[in-house]
Design brief:
CATH class of one domain: Alpha Beta
Number of strands: 39
Keywords: Hydrolase, Protease, Thiol protease, Ubl conjugation pathway
CATH superfamily of one domain: Phosphatidylinositol 3-kinase Catalytic Subunit, Chain A, domain 1
Bound molecules: zinc ion
GO molecular function: cysteine-type deubiquitinase activity
Radius of gyration: 32 Å
Protein name: ubiquitinyl hydrolase 1
Family: Belongs to the peptidase C19 family.
Shape: globular
CATH topology of one domain: Ubiquitin-like (UB roll)
Distance between the termini: 44 Å
Catalytic activity: Thiol-dependent hydrolysis of ester, thioester, amide, peptide and isopeptide bonds formed by the C-terminal Gly of ubiquitin (a 76-residue protein attached to proteins as an intracellular targeting signal)
Length: 898
């Protein structure tokens, strides 16, 4: 979603300043408003804030174009700079200019090549045009490292290719290790060749470039205008540069030809042919954030009847190359090719790891969102993949018959049957034979009682984990610091608050205040990372970023309004907003690094409090000491002045004296202080709250907090079929009232397919972000009885049209057994997918984690709490299926086909 949302979020995010913007204090590095500070003034003079603003502002209003170059910079710098020049509100310049741009926090620890995964635009980085970067890096010399990226076309809109491809480039006949190059997947082969030749100092006409994937010569990359992506070059691909021999000739031949290639165009490659654990126990190499794909593929490949259809080659007879909705069979071929590698017909061909390169490529052709190397939702892939395979294997020849879509009156059984047969006249495939079920959805008009019933096909059932009204809320995790009392130190607790979707910051503060039994004006909402308070949230701002990955921090203070820049009391406050950072005595002046990776150890959470502006030096000491701990002796600490964000301690300033002198002119409105301890040992004692490292990850998001709140799969089915009142936006047109009404809607399973895929709705969506519900869901591995939830006739296909029993208790059980589970752990962006599946070869459970496969116990599968997609097979269908292998002789099939 990088790139395309940038305009939107630019408009949404910044808080709206009131018409009369308050003039901010002129300097940041001093304790009081009118203290002089020569160094800062000089520094500021080199910068013309107004000019910087006026030059950058028009440039920053851009749309990402394919082919253009963009620059990433760290968002924290941009925020500081925006404040400095008054980008949002065009106020006159205030405070000191920011230091040079330091993009260090955008890279993975220890790397200056690889960007951190899961970076979010506006939150972590800002996109600049080439021109903006040139100007800013000229004004702020020493800025860097430079991060230039290309705009690429993603479907119909352009986005910035954030991560690019990392290629390992080998020189033929050289024993040197490969060189690592990061290039855009949109680069052409010619551009890449030129780059590589520059890197190795070679003449392009003397060089031939090879796709050297897994150090095997695949093919030459010599179509100049073709893009790397099109050539199926993937992340961490090996590349070989071949030089002409002494006769001026290229001699290498692409001799690596795997027998599985056939003419499918699929190039799923055997990575490791040793140590195979058995048929189907094959790892899938991660091609760069493709664990969601591996997880889905492993689950599908362990559905016996589905897998056999492909691994036996039967599917080849049913490929429909004419279907305009399909991929001319290429997706089915790439999928089938992969399953045949994973499930070879004889033991001799067994391999242990496969790189699903050909499959990934075809999936990306079918659905462009899967082209890149971003993490995706495995349920989305499932949906699209089943759909794509169905179309490629649709038995209905072109042209498909025309069918009426108009409704039909009659008993439910008749209408449902009619709708299904209409649908199946155009859609008939093995995929549907196994996965297709029907929903019954009932709408009731609240005005006239008119009822409308529809029957729609499905291949997956999405089960809610929350009630409909809960769905409408965004939940936030909040680390809340209560201020100290004369009896005890400040206390920390974790809160969960829910606010209606799209709520502004003010609502979140209100919700926290309610839980903490405080006035909303006693709650400051902030984002704190590794002890650095890098944002105090303004009431008018949006808070959706935090829902996705982070925990909000909230602080109890006397007057929260003073902490907000734009929403301050009309009268000048008597109070100052003070932020205190606790640091090691050896390095009081070291800047706080808000990237935990760069910091040597976790920093304690800051302290926020209000202090009278008219005060003395020793009153400040007393106040800070009592904020740390009620029995802290003020002489045990030293206080330095920092800017109001405490980025750095003032260069020229030292310790502020602990004496009775009044602060001339009074404290400034917002003040940053750095505190160190005279005795370094006080820093390591754990009796000072906030100094111990956090026990749980701050990015726990929704996951950690809902512990002990386990749902059963039956609860989820109950939530699924609970009637809900449609919102005004989704209102239904009642044909009887001839009006839009907020109808009551009920969803039910009319029929359940042989292979039932249950999707636990862990991700709730908002405009920009997804929130994860971390509730554990219990489910049986064997004998899930669906009879209470299937409202249509429970035929198994053998006895069509059996009458529906009114009383669920009279029905025979409809039993399903679990064969595979797709699991998701962590937050969405940075999370990871695995799969657990039951081998039909030995009946044991295995855990598939990218390339690794290991045996696990069944109980570990349904007790992990990470289950996301559940794959169930109807028991009577398993019994129905012939025992043993139903394989059609592969070679014969091939001949028949040709
Ligand atoms: Zn009506």
């Amino acid at each position: 979603a990088q790139g395309r949302s940038r305009r939107k979020s630019m408009e949404e995010e910044p808080p709206e300043p009131p018409a009369a913007s308050p003039v901010l204090p002129p300097r940041r590095h001093s304790l009081s408003q009118d203290d002089g500070d020569v160094a800062t003034a000089e520094e500021a003079e080199r910068h013309n804030a107004q000019e910087e603003r006026e030059q950058i502002k028009p440039l920053h209003d851009f749309k990402v174009q394919a082919g253009a170059t963009y620059h990433l910079i760290t968002a924290s710098w941009w925020r500081e700079w925006s404040d400095f020049v008054g980008l949002q509100d065009s106020t006159s310049p205030t405070g000191a200019p920011p230091p040079p741009i330091d993009n260090e926090d955008l890279f993975e620890a220890g790397s200056s090549v690889h960007l951190r995964k899961g970076l979010v635009e506006e939150q972590d980085f800002i996109l600049l045009t080439q021109k903006e970067w040139e100007l800013l890096s000229k004004w702020y010399p020493g800025s860097g490292p430079e991060i230039a990226r290309r705009g690429v076309l993603d479907g119909t809109y352009a986005k910035v290719d954030m991560y690019g491809l990392t290629l390992l480039v080998y020189l033929h006949k050289s024993s040197d290790p490969p060189k690592e190059m990061v290039v855009s997947s949109a680069a052409t082969l010619r551009e890449f060749k030129e780059m590589a030749c520059r890197e190795f100092d070679l003449e392009p006409s003397e060089v031939r470039v090879w796709d050297y994937f897994h150090k095997k010569l695949h093919k030459t990359l010599e179509t100049p205008g073709e893009k790397l992506k099109k050539s199926q070059i993937i992340n961490n691909n090996d590349i070989l540069l071949e030089l002409k021999d002494e006769h001026g000739k290229f001699v290498l031949k692409g001799n690596f030809q795997h027998s599985y290639y056939r003419s499918t165009g699929g190039e799923n490659t055997v990575v490791n042919s040793s140590r195979s654990m058995g048929r189907g126990l094959v790892g899938l190499q991660n091609l760069g954030n493709t664990c969601f794909m591996a997880s889905t593929l492993q689950c599908l490949s362990n559905i016996p009847r589905f897998r056999e259809y492909f691994s036996s080659g039967v599917y080849l007879k049913e490929i429909n190359r004419q279907n305009p909705l399909g991929q001319e069979g290429k997706l089915a071929e790439a999928f089938g090719d992969l399953l045949r590698l994973m499930w070879p017909s004889s033991d001799g061909d067994m391999v242990s790891v496969v790189a699903p390169r050909g499959f990934k490529y075809q999936m990306g052709v079918f659905r462009p969102e899967f082209q890149g190397y971003q993490q995706h939702d495995s349920s989305e892939l499932m949906n699209f993949l089943l759909d794509g395979l169905h179309e490629d294997l649709n038995r209905v020849p072109e042209p498909k018959p025309y069918v009426e879509t108009v409704g039909r009156e009659g008993p439910d059984e008749e209408v449902a049957q009619f709708r299904l047969s209409q649908y199946r006249r155009r859609n008939d495939s093995q995929v549907h034979d196994l996965f297709l079920g029907q929903f019954k959805s009932t709408l009731v008009c609240p005005v006239c009682g008119n009822i409308s019933i529809t029957f729609d096909p499905y291949n997956m059932v999405s089960l809610p984990l929350r009630t409909h009204s809960e769905e409408m809320l965004t939940m936030y995790s909040v680390k809340f610091w209560r201020k100290p009392t004369p009896q005890g130190p400040r206390e920390c607790s974790m809160l969960r608050v829910g606010v209606p979707k799209g709520s502004k910051v003010a609502k979140v503060r209100q919700a926290i205040a309610e839980q903490a039994e405080l006035d909303p004006n006693q709650v400051v909402l902030a984002t704190v990372r590794n002890g650095y308070c890098y944002n105090i949230h303004e009431d008018a701002g949006s808070c959706e970023y935090n829902a996705s990955s982070q925990t909000f921090f909230a602080f109890e203070v006397a007057n929260a309004a003073v902490f907000q820049r734009y929403l301050r009391p009309t009268a000048v406050s008597e109070l100052s907003a003070v932020t205190v950072y606790m640091k090691h005595p050896n390095s009081p002046k070291a800047p706080l690094s808000y990237s935990a990776a760069a910091a040597q150890k976790p920093s304690p959470d800051p302290i926020l409090f209000n202090h009278p502006r008219s005060t003395t030096m020793n009153e400040i000491y007393q106040a800070v000491a009592s904020q740390i701990s009620p029995d802290m002796d003020p002489s045990a600490i030293e206080i330095y002045v920092a800017d109001d964000r405490a980025y750095r301690v003032e260069k020229t300033g030292g310790v502020i004296p602990n004496n009775r002198d009044p602060v001339k002119g009074g404290l400034k409105e917002r003040l940053g202080l750095v505190v160190t301890f005279v005795d370094p040992k006080s820093l390591v004692t754990t009796d000072i709250p906030g100094l111990e490292p956090e026990e749980t990850g701050a990015n726990g998001g929704a996951s950690g907090s809902a512990r002990g709140n386990t749902l059963s799969i039956n609860d989820c089915f109950d939530l699924f079929s609970t009637p809900e009142k449609l919102s005004p936006e989704d209102s239904w047109y009642c044909p009887k009232c001839k009006n839009h009404v907020e109808a009551n809607k009920t969803m039910q399973l009319w029929s359940a397919p042989e292979v039932l895929v249950l999707h636990l709705k862990r991700f709730s969506y908002s405009r920009f972000f997804r929130n994860k519900i971390g509730k554990a869901v219990s489910f049986p591995l064997e004998g899930l009885d669906l009879s209470p939830y299937v409202v249509g006739p429970q035929s198994t296909g053998a006895q069509p049209g059996g009458a529906a029993a009114e009383d669920a208790s009279e029905r025979p059980p409809l039993l399903y057994d679990c064969v595979a589970v797709s699991e998701h752990m962590g937050s969405l962006g940075g999370g990871h997918y695995t799969a657990s599946a039951k081998s039909c070869e030995d009946g044991k459970w295995y855990k598939f984690n990218d390339a690794s496969v290991r045996e696990v116990t069944g109980s570990s599968v349904n007790q992990s709490g990470d289950a996301y997609l559940l794959f169930y097979v109807r028991r009577d269908a398993q019994e129905e299926a012939p025992q043993g292998e139903t394989k059609v002789e592969e070679e014969e099939e091939e001949e028949e086909e040709e």
